Amino acid sequence: MKRWTSSWRYVPVDYGYELGCYESTTQTATFRNNLEGTAVRVRLNNRYAEAPMEITHGSLWLRDRESGKLSRELPLTLNGETRLLLPPGEAPYCDPIPCPVSAREDFIVQLYFEKKTPIRCVCVTWAALSWGSTQKTGDFGKTDALGFTVKSKLMPGLSADPYPNQYVAGISDISVETENSPCLIGLFGDSITQMSYFSDSLIQLLYNKYPGQCAVINGGICGNRVQKSHPVIEMMPGKGAQFGISGIDRFRADLCGDGAPDMTFILEGVNDCSHSIVFREPDVPTARDIRDALANVADQAKAAGSRVVCSTIMPFGAWGEPWRDQVEGIRQEVNRLLREETPGDILVDLDAVMRDPDRPDVMQAGMHLGDGVHPGWPGGEKMARAVAEAMAPLLANQ
C-alpha cells in the first residue's frame, strides 16, 4: 500500500527573534535519501512568522550517489503556482511531484528568495554529513551570475554558536511516496540529537545495512527539556525560546506531525537535570519527575503506533561547577529508575557505553567536542553502534 514516508525531516526551531534576512538569495541544500518510491513532496515552512513568506521559485533534483548524474529539474509548485506564497504560521506541502526515486538517489532542493525575507525559524545541523546547505547572492536557478554569501553575515543570529552549523529556511521535510513499507525511525531529544554527530552516524550504519528499507528523521532541539519548557534567560536573544517547549508537549507535533515513526528512540534528560538549578528556577524536578516525563513521551509514541527504544542519560561532567554534585545525583537516580522500570520496549544504556570507567560522571576522553556534554564523531559513532544493535531485532521484524 502506498504511503508518504519522510526521507528527511528536522524540527524548524523558533529562535524568538530575527536571525537574519534573505534577499536576492539562492539557498541550495542536499539531503541523503534511502527510500524508493514514485513521487516526492517538500514541506514548505513559515511557522512562527508574523508575515507571509514569498519564495520566488523552487526546484528539486535527484542525484545518483555513484555516478553523480542529475535528474532533470523538477519545479516546486503550490496550488499549481511556481511562486510559493506561504501565509504566516503555515507549513504546507508543495504539490506532489511524480518521479521515480531510488535509494541510491539523494535530493537537491533549491529555493530563490527575491524579496527581503526576515528569518527567525530554521532547521539546523552541525555534523552536516546527511545534509548541508549553501546560500548565494543572486538567482542561481535562472542566471549564470557569480557570487556567494558568508553564512555568518547572512544569519548573524547563528554566528555566535562556537560550533560551525548548517541551516535551511523555508523547508522542514522531504517525503517520498513509497510502496514497500519502509521503517520510519524517529530520534527525539535535545542538542545531542540535533547536532547530528550521533544521528548522522546512525544514518550511515542503517542506510548501508538496510538500503531502501528505512529512513531516519531528527526531532532534536538544543537545550530542550522533556519535563518543562525552556527557562526564561534574560541575557539571551529570544530569552531562551530556541530551547523549545517541553518534550511532552511538543512530541506529537515535532515527531508525529508528518506521520508517526514506526520506531522512536528517546534520548533526553540532560537539561532536565541541570537547567532548573543553573538558571535558579524555584522548582527543581526530582528524578521521578524526569523519569515519568520520559515515560509520558514513550506512551505518546506507543499510542501513535511506534515501538520505543529509550536511553539512560549520558554523563556530562566537565568543569567542577558548584552545582555539579546535585545535578549528578539527579542523573544517577534517573538512570537507576530507568533501568528498574524501562518506559520503552528496549533500553539502551548509553550511560554505561559512554562513561569513563574511572570517573562515572565524565564522558570518556576523545568522545566529546571538548565540553564534556556533546559527542563528536568518535562519540557519535560509538553511540550509533549501540543504538543500531538494540534496534536490529525490531528492524528484522519490520
Count of individual helical segments: 9
Structural class: alpha+beta
Query: Order of strands across the biggest sheet?
Result: 8-7-11-4-14
What is the averaged pLDDT score? 94
Approximate helicity band: 10-25%
Can you put this structure into words, describing what you see?
- The chain contains 9 helices and 23 strands.
- 25% of the residues lie in helices and 29% in strands.
- Strands 8-7-11-4-14 form a 5-stranded antiparallel beta sheet, with no helix packed on it. Strands 18-17-19-20-21 form a 5-stranded parallel beta sheet, with helices on both faces. It has a 4-stranded antiparallel beta sheet with strand order 1-16-5-10, with no helix packed on it.
- It is α+β, with helices and mostly antiparallel strands and 398 residues long.
Write the layout of secondary structure elements.
Elements (H helix, E strand, L loop, with lengths): L2 E7 L3 E2 L5 E3 L2 E7 L5 E8 L8 E3 L1 E8 L9 E2 L8 E3 L10 E5 L3 E9 L3 E3 L1 E5 L5 E7 L13 H4 L11 E3 L2 E8 L4 E7 L1 H4 L2 H13 L4 E7 L26 H9 L7 E5 L2 H9 L8 H17 L3 E5 L12 H17 L5 E3 L1 H5 E2 L2 E5 L13 H20 L2
Parallel strand pairs: 17-18, 17-19, 19-20, 20-21
Antiparallel strand pairs: 1-16, 2-13, 3-12, 4-11, 4-14, 5-10, 5-16, 6-9, 7-8, 7-11, 13-15, 22-23
